[in-house]
Structure to design on (743 residues):
């Protein structure tokens, strides 16, 4: 399996080539180079997966954990920081997800970013991101994971701020970087506590080291979860993700929907054996944080008007589903309480596909109507048939309608939730129904109802509008092909016997649909879709307007995301800046800088005082010399 | 009769401080050189006197006095050469004009 090193090396190479020499390449060559290297990476990932799972299970009924290469990168006495590649079921699964979505985004961007200034830079950053993300998932130890974790943060920052002439994009990229970086501080502290007390950075410390560290492990794991919550946009650290939509849409599909934002879920899954044995209570905190985030994001998604924002909040909500699934685990055995782990990974897999599809579809729509706002859409199904169909498939998948993939993974999550406690199960079923509602609200407002284009055209023909509206058109083949591929995957991914590959303790688990839970959730989802159909199929109906009027307060609050952003601004600007930063700045300027300034000016004054001594006059030197000699002699005589 | 050693020492001290005084106050390089010679010669006298009065059976003091004379001669030669070069460069041997050492 040594060839897996190429999976990391190729995107890095293509990043270096595109970043250094991209300027001298025509757009087509740069795009083709990036896409070709990603295609090879995808092929290698599939091969690796086939070989890995093809090798079969070991004697203990689990897939072996392979380490094709592992070098000691930074030896620090007893603690070593290694760099290498770790293959186990979840990392191989992530390899497939990342390389597939990344390849689709690369192909899609050929069309979407065509003629864009900085095309080569865009592909260079995409390669950098893919490299970092792949490095993150195959990390052999928590520290390597942290290094790549920061690298994905940087590439996300670079890509959100891709349109660097747009102030909103710059602000969004800074916000994303600062918020995730703030969370990563806790992650780092967690890593250091973990490394200090277990004497290793690997994921599998020895039993004796673990026994010694048992009291501090919950703290370390909790801090790591805070880092994961930052990256995965859990409440209240979610504020960066909606703004991150300022980046190019394919980037949102790759980074802020399918791969990077699930890094936090992956982190918790990676540390799952430790969580379940040493810190089950922390795991339950994960579940409650996730459940609240899921509801919060779903409610906010119901009233947003920018289609990318809706998708962003839907992403937050779906990632929260994965977190909940991990959090509700009560044992490592998938048959009794450990089902959530498998469900979470399964949902991660299917979600990456259909959410990537939704974002790419949204990109095609934005490409066609040149706006993010729903008000500029409507009735697009006649103009964009392929986008319409694929978008509908993705909506059905995320809403959890059989036989689309989302149904299977979400069903497993709900089963795990009901197993944990009935209120949790009902709560998550409700959020799932809400998901179906806001997705179909989005779908109807984009593709049904009155066409904004036709209205404008009528106005133009009547002479009431001076500018002819732009006619929406179907996206080019480079953009529709990824849509179709992802739509096909979204249709069939649910039938993958996922439990065969991934489960909480590695042994085989066969997925079986829990009929009661499945029926409830499907009925809930259908009701939600039905309501959405009534309310939004013909644009905003009278009923909808009436509801909006009666719930104005709630709607306004939800539209403003319940003022969480404002609270953060208040906390940072009013409290942290005024009460902490200002005194510290004063101390720094007056005390530290001041004392050093005094030292420097004192030295200077002393220097100007003794400078005349060096006059260049030999005779005065000799006078000083002689007087010194006489003084020394007198001292010697006096003391001797 | 034996002249007491103090007389010689007073002579050499006087000679030395004449040299020092000259070295500090004169402004002409050649005068400085002469003052230096005076100081060196005062030292030579000290060598000879201490040898004669303290260790009459030994010769080290005389030998050092001879070394001192030799060194003084060599030093004079070098110093004269330097002074000539200084004169060639700045057309003066006034010490106030020699401020290159400052830099």
């Amino acid at each position: 399996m040594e060839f897996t090193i190429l999976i990391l090396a190729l995107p890095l190479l293509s990043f270096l080539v595109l970043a250094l020499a991209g300027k001298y390449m025509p757009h087509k060559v740069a795009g083709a180079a990036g896409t070709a290297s990603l295609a090879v990476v995808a092929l290698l990932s599939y091969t690796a997966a086939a070989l890995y799972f093809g090798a079969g299970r070991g004697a203990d009924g689990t897939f072996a954990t392979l380490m094709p290469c592992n070098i000691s990168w930074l030896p620090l006495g007893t603690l070593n920081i290694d760099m290498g590649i770790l293959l186990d079921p979840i990392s191989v699964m992530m390899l497939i997800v990342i390389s597939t979505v990344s390849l689709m985004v690369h192909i899609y961007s050929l069309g979407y970013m065509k003629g864009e200034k900085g095309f080569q830079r865009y592909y260079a950053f995409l390669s950098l991101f893919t490299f970092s993300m792949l490095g993150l998932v195959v990390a052999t130890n928590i520290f390597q994971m942290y290094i790549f974790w920061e690298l994905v943060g940087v590439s996300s920052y670079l890509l959100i701020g891709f349109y660097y002439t747009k102030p909103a994009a710059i602000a969004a990229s800074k916000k994303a970087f600062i918020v995730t970086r703030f969370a990563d501080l806790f992650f780092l502290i967690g890593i250091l506590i973990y490394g200090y007390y277990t004497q290793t950075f690997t994921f599998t410390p020895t039993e004796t080291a673990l026994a010694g560290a048992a009291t501090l492990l919950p703290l370390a794991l909790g801090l790591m979860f805070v880092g994961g919550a930052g990256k995965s946009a859990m409440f209240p650290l979610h504020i960066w993700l909606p703004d991150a939509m300022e980046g190019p849409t394919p980037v949102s599909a790759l980074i802020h929907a399918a791969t990077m934002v699930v890094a936090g879920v992956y982190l918790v899954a990676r540390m799952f054996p430790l969580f379940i044995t040493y810190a089950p209570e922390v795991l339950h905190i994960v579940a409650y944080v996730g459940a609240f985030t899921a509801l919060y994001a779903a409610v906010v998604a119901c009233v947003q008007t920018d289609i990318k924002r809706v998708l962003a909040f839907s992403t937050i909500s779906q990632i929260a589903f994965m977190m909940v699934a991990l959090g509700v685990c009560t044992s490592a055995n998938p048959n009794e309480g450990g089902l959530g782990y498998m469900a979470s990974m399964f949902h991660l897999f299917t979600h990456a596909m259909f959410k990537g599809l939704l974002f790419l579809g949204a990109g095609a729509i934005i490409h066609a109507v040149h706006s993010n706002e729903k008000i500029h859409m409507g009735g697009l199904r006649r103009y964009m048939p392929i986008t319409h169909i694929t978008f509908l498939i993705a909506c059905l998948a995320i809403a959890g309608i059989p036989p689309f993939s989302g149904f299977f993974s979400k069903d497993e999550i709900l089963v795990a939730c009901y197993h944990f406690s009935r209120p949790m199960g009902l709560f998550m079923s409700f959020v799932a129904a809400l998901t179906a509602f806001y997705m179909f609200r989005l779908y109807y407002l984009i593709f049904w109802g009155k066409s904004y284009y036709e209205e404008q055209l009528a106005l133009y023909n009547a002479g009431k509008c001076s500018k002819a509206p732009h006619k929406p058109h179907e996206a080019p083949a480079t953009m529709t092909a990824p849509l179709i591929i992802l739509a096909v995957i979204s249709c069939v991914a649910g039938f993958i016997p996922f439990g065969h590959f991934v489960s909480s303790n590695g042994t085989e688990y066969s997925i079986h649909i829990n009929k009661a839970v499945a029926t409830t959730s499907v009925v809930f989802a259908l009701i939600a879709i039905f309501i959405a159909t009534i309310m939004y199929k013909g644009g905003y109906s009278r009923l909808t307007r009436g509801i909006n009027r009666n719930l104005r307060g709630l709607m306004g609050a939800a539209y403003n995301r319940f003022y969480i952003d404002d609270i953060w601004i208040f906390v940072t600007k009013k409290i942290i800046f005024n009460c902490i930063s200002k005194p510290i700045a004063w101390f720094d300027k007056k005390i530290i800088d001041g004392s050093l300034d005094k030292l420097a000016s004192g030295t200077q004054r002393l220097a100007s005082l003794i400078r005349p001594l060096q006059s260049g006059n030999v005779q005065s030197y000799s006078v000083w010399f002689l007087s010194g000699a006489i003084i020394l002699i007198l001292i010697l005589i006096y003391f001797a | 009769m034996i002249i007491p050693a103090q007389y010689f020492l007073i002579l050499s001290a006087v000679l030395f401080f004449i040299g020092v005084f000259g070295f500090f106050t004169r402004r002409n390089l050649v005068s400085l050189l002469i003052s230096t010679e005076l100081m060196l010669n005062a030292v030579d006298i000290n060598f000879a006197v201490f040898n004669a009065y303290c260790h009459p059976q030994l010769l080290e003091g005389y030998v050092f006095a001879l070394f001192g004379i030799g060194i003084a001669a060599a030093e004079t030669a070098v110093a004269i050469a330097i002074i000539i070069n200084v004169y060639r460069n700045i057309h003066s041997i006034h010490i106030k004009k020699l401020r290159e050492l400052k830099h």
